[in-house]
Each structure stands twice: as structure tokens, then as C-alpha cells.
Amino acid sequence: MMLQAAGRRLTGYVLLYISWFLKSCLFLYLPVYHIKVTGGSSGIGKCIAIECYKQGAFITLVARNEERLLQAKKEIEKHCINDKQVVLCISVDVSQDYSQVENVIKQAQEKLGPVDMLVNCAGMSISGKFEDLEVSTFEKLMSINYLGSVYPSRAVITTMKERRVGRIVFLASQAGQVGLFGFTAYSSSKFAIKGLAEALQMEVKPYNVYVTVAYPPDTDTPGFAEENKTKPLETRLISETTSICTPEQVAKQIVKDAIQGNFNSSVGSDGYMLSSLTCGMSPVTSITEGLQQVVTMGLFRMISLFYLGSFDNIIRRCMIERAKYGTADKTA
């Protein structure tokens, strides 16, 4: 009797896994046609647009700088696979006026049809010690990095739910998984993105709409180059403990995860470790992914303590050097 009960339970688990897996497969190959990319004039956003264009998508690029938008449009159009594809450019600040963002998205949908996938890449980074940053810096980063993702998402979500199809991608950062020295303003704005993504996925999953939150590492983009100009020494030394990715590499991974409906999108072994370690109550795509996170979390926690210890040593070393030579805090 006990063996029979165990057998039935095992069969039930297997059937549950198979049904979950089959349900996952239903959205693995969903055709995505109209892609809207905010912050799409450069960096990761532009590379995501190129990656989607290579797969035959119609693209709407949104950014503030019209000149850079038109230049990005020319670059993207070089990768067309058929003569029906279109790249639409719209110059607007997605973080300032929701009604304006809503009108812009309506215009894009009138020309290219409903948005199948929204990629929120608009954002910026400003680093500095907490007491050295102006209060306006915190307000600015929350506006651009957080509200700049809320407004476009709010404008497309109703149509996606009505059509019962859609993808929404949020570009966070590894600094949105763990807080780092010098990133008190930036990290908090990116942590907010994670909370938004987790809550929104709960609301929209019954409507076959899937949310992906990407955690790219340091990436060789114009924004990263600008960030390095004012980055504190400690922050720069911590940053140098990891390698720099190309925007093309990051874009390919994000597009792949978004089309497959994966909630987390990370790059490399460090990215996988951070995503598993900081997963919390984040949604999982499959039972296998959930089990992997549970099994590896203990090991990754020990590794993370090693990393944190090395970061502490970097900060102490900087403090000792400055005290030794009587130098003031300097940026790199």
C-alpha cells in the first residue's frame, strides 16, 4: 500500500512537471512583431532593436535626442531581412509627462499595430558618496530610471491584457540586485524596478503577458563611459573585479529571455550567481529553475560573503591610503 501511494504521488509530480513544462512551451515561440524600445538611440537599447530587427520585427525607437535617434535608425535598417520592415523614431522624454508618453504610444500603434513587446531601456547612472550627492540627484534617477519605465508600461498594459499577448522588459542592473559603494542613488532606483517587475508579473500572467527584468553587468556603452568620469575610487576598484560585457552580448541574452518568457535575464556566471542568490520570491519559469535556485543558494551565499569581504578590503585600503597621505576623497 505504501509503495502504491508513493508511486501515485511520484506519478502526480511527474504529470505536474510535464503540464508545467508544456504550459511553458506555449509561449516559447510566440511571434513578436512590433517592438517598442525606450532609450533606443544607443547602448543596450539600440542593440536590442538591432537584434529584434534581424528577426523580422517592426521597431519603434524612443529617446530624447532626435539626432541620435535618426543615426540609430540608419544603423538598424542595415539589418533588415525583408522590405516590409519599418523603424519608427519618436523623440520624447518618457520620464516627465505620462499623458505625452501615452499619446506617443498611441501614435506608434496606429502606424505599426499593437505593441507586442515593450523594452524599457531609458535610464542613466550617477555615482558618488551618499553625503556628496545632491538630493536632486536621487529625484532625477528615480524619475528617469523608475518612472521612465512605469509610464511606457502603463500605456501598453491594457491593450496587452485585452489581446492576451505581450512582453514587458525592464532593464535593471546588477546594482539593482546588490547595493554597492557609491551607488546609493542608482541602486535604489534599480531596486525599485525589481519590485515593480515582481508585482506586475503577478497581475498580468493570467492574461498571457510576461515580464522580464534584466540585470546586465558593466557594459561598454556611452552611458558607462560617462559614469566612469565621476565614479569614486572605491566604486571603480570594485567595478574592476568583474569583466565588461559588450552591448551586443547583453542584448542577445535579453531578447532570448524575453521571447521565452523568462522572468530573470542575466549574463555570465556572476550574473547567474547573483540572480540565484537574490531571487527571493521572484517568479520562476520552470520547476527545474526553482530547484536549481534552492540547491545552489547555500553555495552561492558562501561565495557572496567572499566577494563582500574583498569589497570591504578595497574600501579599507582606500581609507588607509588617504589617511596616510592626507588626501581628500577623489574620483577616478
Automatic annotation (TrEMBL):
One of its GO terms (molecular function) is 3-dehydrosphinganine reductase activity. The chain crosses the membrane at residues 12-32. InterPro entries: KDSR-like (IPR045022), NAD(P)-bd_dom_sf (IPR036291), Sc_DH/Rdtase_CS (IPR020904), SDR_fam (IPR002347). It comes from the Eukaryota. Keywords: Endoplasmic reticulum, Lipid metabolism, Membrane, NADP, Nucleotide-binding, Oxidoreductase, Sphingolipid metabolism, Transmembrane, Transmembrane helix. Its EC number is 1.1.1.102. Gene3D superfamilies: NAD(P)-binding Rossmann-like Domain. It is found in: Endoplasmic reticulum. Pfam families: adh_short. Pathway: Lipid metabolism; sphingolipid metabolism; Sphingolipid metabolism. One of its GO terms (biological process) is sphingolipid biosynthetic process. It catalyses: sphinganine + NADP(+) = 3-oxosphinganine + NADPH + H(+). Belongs to the short-chain dehydrogenases/reductases (SDR) family. Catalyzes the reduction of 3'-oxosphinganine (3-ketodihydrosphingosine/KDS) to sphinganine (dihydrosphingosine/DHS), the second step of de novo sphingolipid biosynthesis. PANTHER family: 3-KETODIHYDROSPHINGOSINE REDUCTASE. This is 3-ketodihydrosphingosine reductase. It comes from Myotis lucifugus (Little brown bat). The gene is KDSR.
